[in-house]
Amino acid sequence: MARAERLAQDLSLQFTTLRRRTLEVVAEEGRPLGAYDIAERLSAPGKRVAAVSVYRALDFLTEHGLVHRIASRNAFVPCEHGHGAGESAVFLICRSCGSVDETISAEIERSLDHTLAQAGFKPASRIVEIEGECGACQGRQEEG
Amino acid sequence: MARAERLAQDLSLQFTTLRRRTLEVVAEEGRPLGAYDIAERLSAPGKRVAAVSVYRALDFLTEHGLVHRIASRNAFVPCEHGHGAGESAVFLICRSCGSVDETISAEIERSLDHTLAQAGFKPASRIVEIEGECGACQGRQEEG
DNA sequence: GTCTTGCCTGTTACAGTGTAACGATCGGCG
DNA sequence: CGCCGATCGTTACACTGTAACAGGCAAGAC
User: Are B127 and A129 within 8 A, CB to CB?
Assistant: First the structure.
């Protein structure tokens, strides 16, 4: 992610090797990764990376909007949009291939805002995760 | 929940004591309960209920739409609506008092359906969880 | 240079979450 | 009675996440 690298320059000092490599691992994978999976990929023979370090790196990355946490999977994916941290994304999680697509819909945001205002609820963070079957996997099943 | 009791009759054999008591515990609490919290409340001196039994009861209850799982909290709340299992609910989770309010919005469902159709994604289950501050807690803060 | 400060990382330990596997129990049925 | 299916108890285990403390490293103050 070139965007991440660019944002990294702004944080210069803060974007350490561990955090950069954590982001790389998450970005290379096409599906959500658990913290322990990341730790395993970051580890080399004789150089083990503890899961707790990964968690701290992930905290940093999520705070700066470079990765997202998938609550229903306890896993992490790279952020594919340049949206601000306060904005809400919709995650489409495919049960067949495990891929996660991140989309943003102004329409959904509007209806959410409307419903929240009606309820007198002041939102801080939003989680919208849809499990199902992505278009590619639907096509694959029709063929087979 | 009288509704749950009524639905229980239909499942006659399936609605065992453990499952009923699990539902009671979840319904009595005004906030999401973890599986181990439930197990603790179900346990009596000399009669310990293991968490794994609670998980099985919760699986049953969620399948039949009597309780919901709050993915962002790893906790469970009673279902407050008679909606079908396929319908999507919106959970408003208050960070101050920990309460969870369940609402249904046709507007949100429409916009979600629209976005999903555009993406060619076939949804199976939907998770919409908003963290923030409920109306009651906002009023309380203004006073204090 | 040295000292202090603050941040990041390593390590250990531990609490919480969830599942697999096996055995026992109970009710219904031939 | 014996069989069968579902539920439940128990143990064991894997995964997820946090607390606490120690060491390293860069930057600024003296």
Answer: yes
CA distance B30 to B102: 12
Instruction: Tell me the per-residue pLDDT of B18-43, one tens digit each, with 9 for 90 and over.
Output: 999 999 999 999 899 999 999 999 99
**Average per-residue pLDDT in chain B?**
88
Alpha helix (H) residue ranges in chain A: 2-10, 17-28, 35-42, 51-63, 106-119, 135-143
Amino acid identity at B86: G
How far B51 CA sits from the closest chain A CA (Å)? 20
For residue B109, say whether it is annotated as part of any ligand binding site. Answer: yes
Residue A76 pLDDT: 98
- Each residue of A48-107: pLDDT tens digit? 999 999 999 999 999 989 999 999 999 999 998 876 545 689 999 999 999 999 999 999
- The radius of gyration computed from the CA coordinates of chain B, to the nearest angstrom, equals 17
Q: Which CATH number fits domain A2-143: 3.40.50.1110, 3.30.1490.190, 3.20.20.80, 3.40.50.620?
A: 3.30.1490.190
A-interface mutation test, from B88, B97, B111, most A Cβ less than 10 A away: B111
Q: How many angstroms is C1' of D28 away from CA of A59? A: 28
B11 touches strand D (CB under 7 A): no
